[in-house]
Amino acid sequence: MLYWAVVFFVVAIVAAVLGFGGLAGAAAGIAEILFFVFVVLLVISLVMHLVRGRSPRL
Fold this sequence. Notes:
Blueprint: H1 2-18, H2 21-52
Protein name: UPF0391 membrane protein BN1012_Phect1801
InterPro entries: DUF1328
Keywords: Cell membrane, Membrane, Transmembrane, Transmembrane helix
């Protein structure tokens, strides 16, 4: 998921340099949404890992 956020960010940068305003804005918006989804999933994963913990080995 982070890979796609970076891909859309790069597309937005290239489109902005070339002067495609609408395309750059759309790609930047998609990259931003994917980045925040990635961050939320990371936080949920970390919390679940801490809550589950590990059982002691016998």
